[in-house]
Structure formats: structure tokens, C-alpha cells
Amino acid sequence: MIAAVAYPLAAATGIGAKVTAHALEHKTKILTVALPAETSYLYAPDGKTVLTMFYEEYRQYTKLADMSPNIQQAIVAAEDSRFYQHHGVDPKGVARAFVANARSSGVSQGASTLTMQYVRMALRDSAKTPKEVQEATQQTSLRKIREMRMALDLEKELSKEEILERYLNSAYFGHRAYGIYAASEIFFSKTPKDLTPVEAATLAGLVKSPSEYDPASSDQKDATARRNYVLDRMAQLGYVSPTDAARAKSEPIRLKLSYPPNDCASIPEKWNSWGFACDYLKNWWSAQPAFGDNRLERMDKLRRGGYRIVLSLDPKIQEAAEKNVGAKEGTGSPFANGIVVSEPGTGRVKAMAVNRTYSLDLAENPPSSNPEAGPTTKANYPNTVAPLLGGGSLPGYQAGSTFKMFPMLAALNEGMPLSTSFNAPYKYRSEVYDGWAPSNASGAMSGNQTMWSGFGKSVNTYFVWLEEQIGAEKGVRLAEQLGLRWRTDVDREHASPSKAPKWGAFTLGVSDATPLEMANAYAAIAADGRYCEAIPVQSIHNRDGTPTTYRTAGGIEREVAKPRCRQVVSADAARAATDAARCPTGDTPARGSCGGWSTADSVRGTVGRPVAGKTGTTDSTRSAWFVGYTPELAAASFISDPDNPFNAVGDGQSQIPIAAVAETLRDALKGKPTRQFTPPSDRIVG
Predict the structure, then answer these.
(1) 208-230 as b/e, with b when 16 or more CB fall inside 10 Å?
(2) Rounded CA gap, 308 and 53, in Å?
(3) Ramachandran quadrant class, 197 (left: phi over 0; alpha: psi -120 to 50; beta: rest)
């Protein structure tokens, strides 16, 4: 019998050929620095208001000093009363379990100390493959011996307090509560620091079997019995008096359950529209190499990395955007009216709003307006989580004449002056584009035009001619440099190097684009030609409070949340484009003439300060756009049917995006000093 009892201890110290000392030492070293998965938090711009969380395992790491002594004592009493006497393995417990298991011919009793249990949890949590998970949790003698050896080694590296802290942050308490912070919040709606002896005993009792002793079940008999056992053990160890233990055992278990939010659909109702920005954040995150080599790794980091993420949305601008989109088209319309506001010089997204409710519940949505979708397919309104504003997989909407900006900007950057004139006919036959013959929307657009008047009146034939002078591919490539992506097979084919030189219709906006892309592209023009990648965050910090960084291709370490900007066109070219873009809005350019009228002449009066922009409509007004900007903000708004692009919004609706942008800029900038655009130089005016 003595030899039988001694075997497990001898095996733990001389573990044999199957598990080398070197391999165990390496794993033990990893466990001394490894931390369990932790919930990531998404905050409003104040950095304090929690909008939602992201987690697979709800957990927030908590220091031992921030835990009540009650829970520390209760977990020792429940799981390992000799914790402070042994060195990772309890010889008495091993002997007792070995004899009991030998007699029962099975596993009737365990001998795991808190340290051994922590080793098992840490190996499980740090596992990178299913095989490693299995090795960490399978019921085998080899696993138990490995745990013993590693527990002995771990106690040479960490103090008892450090091990207890890590244990309490790793243990599973049921109801997706991993760690004592989550357990305290979910079962009692309080922090671990405020746990009473009764509450601590209840939670400590859960670790052995969270489902069997679940106090939230309809029958609390087993949970109460387990709690009372823990209270008795606490009394025996001198943590509480026998009188206090008896009094506590007479109390019923009183829970105050809470269910922490998870993911974008859990954002509180009063911030419902922020769900679209949250969804964009996830799509943006999944594309960042800083968080992993692929989408799966990156999203795993989001749910397990314990990040503190602050959205870039500005509450005042977001409120203005929400108020001004959907004013005429409510959530019950098949036509989506959305807006995105971007900050020139940083690329930070300041507002995302659309006349939809962010919700996964599509039960009450009517059938899709697309006749090819079938009768069971639901429409995207009033509820949706589809990325209608951009940042996801949807291609977007044809943006019409807002694309005239790209060949004009390319021409200016090539050295052509704003005064470049052409006697634009009503209809123009292009020999460059194999006889393609576009026409203007109105005969009043015919006649001699410059970039100012051509842009202000949106003269198609002028811009097809201008595009010919520089080559359509230059406008296409510039649009790419300003953040546009081609998401349909047709657009990708036309934008290819072999086809782009013949893509004459590019300037008329036949390609799909998203309001996120268009707001950010025009923001680069407002920033004197400096393009900044769209970014949905103000800051991202690691669990230890340090800013999250990544290493560039050039080896430079940078913060993930910092703007990523580059000069795309010269400042003078951008200023010249802005001067021409003041014409569509009814504003007065610094250097030229708009030709007497424009396509959105109400904008300047609404905004009440210098403003530039461009309207855009497609054939039969299937969609309508307006992109506008001041030196401080750029905004893009559209109206279209996301389900069926052939469901025309009609000419009467084309004013909706114009009003949405103008009123949002007005409200967002109210009370702020008026800033002027910088005029272009004499050289580029011509």
C-alpha cells in the first residue's frame, strides 16, 4: 500500500520519457506570463460609456486586491483547504484519492489542488489546436502526472497570492461567467470587492459543477446544500465564526441576475443607430493585420484580447445625422436614405446613420422588393444589420455625377487649369471611346464651359471630353488612391489595366460606391489632397492599458488607432477642385465663375458657411447622391433601394440627400468658428 501511494508523487517528480522535463519547463514558463481570455469593451467617445462588449468567454481580469477576502477564503475552503501548506501538490490528498480510486476501480475522488486546477485551465485557455485542448482536459493518468509536475514548478515561480488571483480569474462559474468578476456581476450585479460571505460561498460552490449547483435554476436545493458545505468549511478553517456560518446557512440564496451585452446587436436602444458604426468597426478590425494573419485570428483577438476600444463617432454630429436622414423616408420605406460624415485630415468617421433600425429580428419585415429574390426573402427594412453605409461586403450604389470629381482632380493634378474650356454640345460622340455618344440632362447645359461651370451644372459632355484629354485610366487610378474599391465583376473588369483606358462612362458614375468611400474620398480634397484611410476608432488600448500598436512594412511601430494618411494629389490641385466644387452648392468660388446656375444651389444658404460638393443621379434616378464638405467635415448621403437597384427613387426624391448633407453640416458645425477654403494659385487657375 505504501508503494502504491508513493507512485503518483514519484511520477510527478520523475515524470518519465513520455513528457520530457524540458517540454514541461517550457510550458510552465509560458503559464507564468499567460493570461486568460478577456472581454473587449467598446466605449462611446467619452471613453466611459460602455456601448457593448465582445467575448466568447465573459471575463474581466481583476487583481486580488480588488476582490473581497470572502471569495478568496471561500474558494480555498471549497476546493483546497491545504492550499497555503502544500507546494503545488498535496501528498495527503494524492494518497487519499489514490486509495479511494483503487478501491472503486475508477475515478471516484480527485486530488487536484488549486494550483493543479489552474495549470489545467491555463493549458486549456492557451491551447492553439484541438489536440492541445484534448491533452489539457482528458481524464488520463499522464495528464494528472503532468499537472502535478507543472504545479510543483509553477509554485517556484509564482506566489500563492499570484496563483490564487489567476485561478479566480480563470475558473468557470456557469452562465458564460468566466472568472470572479463576471460571476459577481452575472449572479449578484456587483463587483468581487463587495461579495458577502454568503454570496462568496455560493459562487465558490459553483466551480465543482456549475450546472449541478446552478442557483439560477428553478430548484435551489442542490445549490443551497453546496453553499452550506462551503460555509461549514469556512467555519472549520476559522474564516467565519460557527455562529455566523449557522446564520448564513439559514438564509435563502438571493440572486440579482444580469446579462452582459455581447456584440453590436446588444447596443442599448437609445444608441441603436450606433450599431451600424459598431458593425463597421468589426469589418474594419477583421482587415487589420495588427490583430492576426487572417480574419478568423483577428476576430478571435477581438473576443478574447481584452481591448478597450473607443469609437470615433462624435455624439453631436451623430445626432444631427440621425435627425436629418429619413426625415422624408422613414424606416418603413424600401428606399434607404443614409449618410456618413468623415473628418478631413484624420479619416475618422464622425457619424453613420440610415433610416433603418439596427436589429437581427427580421420577422416583421415585408418581402423584398426584388422580384428575383422570391416571396420568402425579407426586405432590408425596417430592421437590418446589413452594412448599407459601407465597410462590408455590399457593393454599394451607383453614385452618378459625384464621380466627375475624379477625372477633374486628375486633370488638375496633371497641370490642366480650372479655366480649361470646351464648347460642350448637348450630345457628344467620342472617337476615343469607340463612338459612344452621351448627352446632357438638359439643353441648357450646352455651350462653352470651364471646370467651374461644367462641375456646377454637371455637364456630362464637358467631362467626357475632359476625361479624354487625360485618359480615363488616370481618373480610375486616382479614385483607387482615394479609397474606392470595385466590388462587382463588371466594375472590376472595367477598372482593369486593359479596360480602364476605354471606360468613358466612369466619369458619369456608373460604378457602385458606398457613402463611406465617397465621404472619405471628398474629405481628402478638403484636406488639401491628403488622403487618410477611413477609421472607426478614436483609440484602442491593450488589457494592460498601453496603446495597441503594429509594425509597418518598413519596421516602424505605430498605434493602430492613429490616422494613416498620404498625399495623393498636390495641395494646389485639391484647392482648385474645391474652388470648382463650390459651384454646385450655390457658393461663390474664390477665382472663377459658375456660369449662372447650379444643381444644388440651396446648400450654401442652409449650411451658412463656405461649402463645396457635388450632386449625383443615375439613369431614371434609380439612386440619388450628394457629397458635400467644409474645411472641417465631409459628408456623403444617398437614397436608393438596396434590395432592387431597378426600383427607381424618382426625380422628386433627388433633393433628399442634398438636404440631409446640408442640414447635417449646418447642425454639426453650429456655434463653431467659420473657416474659409484656401484659394488655388494663379498657376492652376489659368
Answers:
(1) eebeebbbeeeebeebbebbbbb
(2) 10
(3) alpha
Domains 59-250 and 397-684 in one fold = no
SS3 at position 354? strand
Alpha helical stretches, state H, 582-654: 603-607
Q: Exposed, middle or buried: residue 422 (CB in 10 Å: 0-12, 13-18, 19+)?
A: buried
Task: Locate the domains of the chain by residue range.
Answer: 59-250, 397-684
The pLDDT value recorded for residue 450 is 98
Using alpha carbons only, give the angle 619, 623, 627 rounded to the nearest 5 degrees.
Answer: 115
As given in the structure block, the three cell numbers for residue 230 are: 462551503
For 194-215, write each residue's pLDDT tens digit.
999 999 999 999 999 999 999 9
Pairing of strands 634-640, 624-629: antiparallel
Tally of CB atoms within 10 A around 454: 28
The answer to whether 198 touches 78, Cβ cutoff 8 Å, is no
pLDDT tier at 36 (50, 70, 90 boundaries)? confident
CB count within 10 Å of CB 449 equals 24
**Could you read off the pLDDT of 525-565 as tens digits, one per residue?**
999 999 999 999 999 999 999 999 998 888 899 999 999 99
pLDDT of residue 95: 65
For 436-505, the DSSP string reads B--B-S-GGG-EEE-HHHHHHHT-HHHHHHHHHHH-HHHHHHHHHHTT----SHHHHHHHSTTTGGG-GG
Q: What is the pLDDT at residue 145? A: 84
Q: Tell me if the domain spanning 397-684 has CATH number 3.40.710.10.
A: yes
Output the nine-digit C-alpha cell for 656. 433628399
Beta-carbon contacts of 105 under 8 Å, excluding residues fewer than 6 positions away, are: none
The structure's pTM equals 0.88
Which is more confidently placed, 139 or 17?
Answer: 139
Question: Rounded to whole angstroms, how far apart are CA atoms 614 and 580?
Answer: 10
pLDDT band at 621 (very low <50, low <70, confident <90, very high): confident
User: Quick one: fold of 59-250?
Assistant: Penicillin binding protein transpeptidase fold (1.10.3810)
Reported confidence tier of residue 1, pLDDT bands at 50, 70, 90: very low
Task: Name the helix (H) or strand (E) containing 186.
Answer: helix 180-188
Q: Which of 478, 346, 501, 483 is nearest to 412 (CA)?
A: 478
In this structure, the strands spanning 565-567 and 612-617 are unpaired
User: For residue 351, which phi and psi values (nearest 5 degrees)?
Assistant: -160, 145
- Give every CB contact of residue 449 below 8 A, 6+ residues apart in sequence: 421, 422, 423, 424, 457, 459, 462, 595
Q: Mean pLDDT for the chain?
A: 91
List the alpha helices (DSSP H) in 14-58: 21-33
Burial class (CB in 10 A: 0-12, 13-18, 19+), 351: buried
Give residue-wise pLDDT tens across range 502-517: 999 999 999 999 999 9
Sole residue written with cell 483547504: 81
316 with 328: CB under 8 angstroms? Answer: no
**Residue, of 282 and 24, whose pLDDT is higher:** 282
Closest Cα partner for 285 from 40, 85, 648, 551? 40
Cα→Cα distances 420→24, 449, 452, 469, 684, Å: 76, 8, 9, 11, 10
* Residues 624-671: tens digit of each pLDDT: 999 999 999 999 999 999 999 889 998 888 899 999 999 999 999 999
